[in-house]
């Protein structure tokens, strides 16, 4: 009556004493005697079970640990592994009472781990169901290190199941696994949800009988790995790391995609700061000193509120630093938009001068192409859905045969009957349309065009994928030095151009040294050009990293070249810990003892910030504790106030930043006391992107990351702490207005490998959240 399933079960029971069971060894089946047990991760294992389950702490029973990683796009588990904070620093650490979770949220990842307690001895099967992808890992014992992948839903992020749909994919169901009720088994469940579908993940199990259905593993059979309720968020030593979740796992390398960003390729600029500097005496009196007074400085000029960024000009660089985000131009084609900036030069040269055509009968753009006089839409900055600009490439005229074939096409189509694509009726199948004829021999002519030459040094706030302005290649063709590493040109057509020259020289054929000098090329009357040295600027460059003395630990007497990175925080332990770790890594990579960290803490309760600073390998730091709501302007001002020597550089910093190793050198080079401040442009990473896969855009409008001498900071009035109290946004533009009105220039460059990690506003500083509804 039970059918074939019952017959198979009886046959299996009858043969069991004589035939060994098939037991999985993760990819292979190991033969095991029914009276013996096997360690799934090892060989042999023919030992009698004498191990009993450890005594279970009562408060651990009926729950599993849950770690939540928010604000991360993608539907595959491999996307979760790319998260900067995975697996040690989740947004939330809590517990669940069963292995079936549905938060009703989007763009997150889950890691659920703990122990499973079988209710009987025997062979069990597990299955996982989810929207989107998920992985279920199970250990052969209570050790996380023995975990192996048992079942999963998809690997690409496109696979999903309905709730409780445990048999949609073959990969969902595990092989039969021998478990014992006297033992506990470590498990780990990873789940990734994108912004679509109904989010859920659940794990079911059943005794190995095909007639039985999978049932969700509930609180009766799970327990915590550890109790985290009393631990700070930066306390991570207790968190298990397995093959599924360890950053050193082969899964990280195996699932990494090759990325097309040119900026990922090595560049001599990235490590040039490690080259020893040339002795100052070797370059003294090479050029005559001169005063620096550019015409574009707007000192005492009335600037309307938040209009200072319109008076910031860009510098040209050489060689190409590949900061143009060419890999993002499929989504954002603003670099090719025919805006007035580019069109005025394009039209001046004449279309015929730039582009040639084989035929000239038809000048009408083909469908889907952009007319040459199309207006620029300033709202299409972040993402553009417009067609790729191809109007500059002119095809030859349509052939005569094509035109003849097109005649009378409508009449023929009207006479034809509508025939199904799949017809089983007798008779000849007739087409209901005429196929287009393709001229494979069509050729075209085109002249070389460099869009970089059409760009202006005006600070274009509408295009966020274009890179730094590029100097012509002829700029370095006559150089007789060992290598030109970097040239930066600030143009002043009325008085003369300022250059930062960074050269790699072979000193007497013995060693390689670096030369970094500011040079002012003046325009004298009657077109005479003369080069001179900016003595104060060059002296600061030569007295950078590597000169003796170092920053004094006392507030006074700090020599020039001292750099202070100032940051204000409140909670956000995962990001604060990351910042401290990055600063320690920066110190290890540069061995720079002349930089300091100032961290202003608004009474964080999710970590001990001061203890984290003490444990970090930093040359020195300042820790300030403030109470009340988070105030970025007040926090930064309090931090800068601790620096008493005006000849030090302060860099107003932020969380969520990835710093390149040359950041300290870059800040020092572009800050000159009384003359120049520095606002490097950071690249905002898109949701789900990382420094190894940098999709995103340049933050051309933001000036929150700002380097300036302490004396200049005080002279312009510092931060506006009265107007910008417990709100932020706009304080950087307001500071920029006052900096420019004081007569300072602001250097604005896109800095390679300088990233801002994606994050939402959830859980930030003074944000309030609703209490979740009870189950």
TrEMBL record:
Membrane-spanning intervals of the chain? none
Record keywords, A-Z? Golgi apparatus, Membrane, Signal-anchor, Transferase, Transmembrane, Transmembrane helix
User: What is the membrane topology noted in the UniProt record heading this document?
Assistant: Single-pass type II membrane protein
Give the UniProt entry's GO cellular component terms: Golgi cisterna membrane
Top-rank taxon of the source lineage equals Eukaryota
Q: What is its EC number?
A: 2.4.1.244
Enzyme class per UniProt = transferase
Described purpose of this protein according to its UniProt entry: Transfers N-acetylgalactosamine (GalNAc) from UDP-GalNAc to N-acetylglucosamine-beta-benzyl with a beta-1,4-linkage to form N,N'-diacetyllactosediamine, GalNAc-beta-1,4-GlcNAc structures in N-linked glycans and probably O-linked glycans.
Q: What is this protein called?
A: Beta-1,4-N-acetylgalactosaminyltransferase
